[in-house]
Amino acid sequence: MDKLIINSGAREKRAAFIHKGKIEQLEISRAGGQSLVGSIFFGIVTKVLPGMNAAFVDIGTGKNAYLHRNGLPEYIQSEAPDKEKKSISAFVRQGERLLVQVEKDEAGSKGAKVTGIIEVTGTHLVYMPSGNYMAVSKKIADSARREELRQLGAEMRMGAEGVLFRTSAGEALDSELIEEIGELRRAAGELFQKAVSLKKPGPVAERDPFVEQLVPLIEKMAGGEIVVDDPELLSELKKRTSKGGGGPSFSYYSGKENIFALHGADQEIGKLLKRVVWLENGAYLLVEETETLTAIDVNTGKFSGKSSLEETVLKTNLLAVEEITRQIRLRDLAGVILVDFIDMKSEEDRAKVAAKMEADLRKDGRRTRVVGFTSLGILQITRKRLGPSLSGTLTSKCPSCEGTGRISSPETEAFKLERELWEHRGALDEAVLVETTPEVKAVFEGEGKAHLKRLEDSLGFKILIVPIGSAVHFYTIRQFGTEDELRTKADNTY
């Protein structure tokens, strides 16, 4: 039975969708660090770049947001036949005050991506005060009802408004939809009034991204169970996702044990931060995430197969596709993703793998594109980025390796120490006191301390080394002085 486990009692809110005992979707929202996608800001244009057809907008978050010409109401509403040839300067100027909505969160050094086409979301409709657009959800199965909604939309729209009928509109009464668009118009009017009163850039309307992420997930569930540890959230979700009979059941969890730990979700999240992902047949994936792209390497590992080599390779690669698409969803990998499958000689086998990847990613809901195999046999994928990946949310850069995942070796530190001590050759002091790890000490001294003795003879002073346990290899030159003084200090201190 499918389950949606929601942990909302603390400042970090989490939800895990479990299908056949495995997490298939994960949502995490943190106080002070949650997604701003969908939030509406009052901003001021700080720079217009005609060459990029874009502008930078100060929205009060610390980093200027990026606004493309195609996201400006003036451009959308323009009926000029040559509007596409006009630069952004024809539609916006520096210093202009705008109401914008976040489309994509800031990531790294880049600010958020915003649009001037504001969307106000209701139960059955999405209303755009200046969207100049009308659409009906393709998920409404009844074609006759879709046509009725198109006609209703044409009647309801005023001026350059935009209206999108959500899937639930297919079951709603026309009178309900007419009433709702009136409510959304009033809500939009209040937003613009609030923006006028603001003197500096800042938020006008901030949405709860956690609830917004859960609603479509619940609406997809045909059955199963939703377990929530927060009674207020439970009530809100019931109200927002009332589907009548046939939907999932809701229950409140009041136990002392953390709900994620109880269902094994915490352990699964821990696995999502590791580089190695084991497949059921003994093969494994190696996931390397960088700031610019993600590389995934498929390896046969312990799997040797019982048939021909070509068949073994194809089976492993197809099995890998299932896990790769799951990892992409759960880790929220985005941007450029490169997958190095086990080498396939047959173009037919490559086509099967690419087709399965495309079909599995189609279930994702995020805009994703399978570009195809390169001449080196690497499958290229692009996925729309909305915010930081799971590792970007749950981890920070190691201060020692600065995010490379690697630290300096004992040999490197030993040779650096040797070079630094050579700079003190001929010093008048009798000895030097050095702290370092046991591994660096062993390399520095050499077998039987032969290298240490040769170095002391060449430098003209004794080298006293104190081993300090550490996971990161290092050395520190503590002090120069007399041999007796430093030996006494070492004995008394360490």
Could you please describe the fold and organization of this structure?
There is one protein chain. The mean pLDDT is 90. Helices cover 33% and strands 27% of the residues. The strands form 5 sheets. It has a 6-stranded mixed β-sheet with strand order 16-17-18-19-21-20, covered by helices on one side. Strands 3-2-1-14-15 form a 5-stranded mixed β-sheet. It has a 5-stranded mixed beta barrel with strand order 4-5-6-8-7. The protein has helices at 73-77, 143-156, 174-197, 209-220, 231-240, 259-262, 265-271, 309-331, 347-362, 390-394, 410-422, 438-445, 450-459, 483-493; strands at residues 3-7, 12-19, 22-30, 40-49, 54-58, 65-68, 97-104, 113-115, 120-121, 125-128, 133-136, 162-165, 202-205, 225-228, 249-252, 276-278, 284-289, 293-299, 335-340, 368-373, 378-383, 431-436, 462-467, 475-481. The chain contains 14 helices and 24 strands. The protein is α+β, with helices and mostly antiparallel strands. It is globular, with a radius of gyration of 30 Å. It has 4 domains: 3-34 and 208-267, Nucleotidyltransferase, domain 5 (2-Layer Sandwich); 118-200, Ribosomal Protein S5, domain 2 (2-Layer Sandwich); 275-394, no CATH class; 410-493, GMP Synthetase, Chain A, domain 3. It starts with a strand and ends with a helix.
Model regions low in confidence, pLDDT < 50 over at least 5 residues: none
Per DSSP, the total helix count is 14
The count of domains is: 4
Biggest sheet, strands in spatial order?
16-17-18-19-21-20
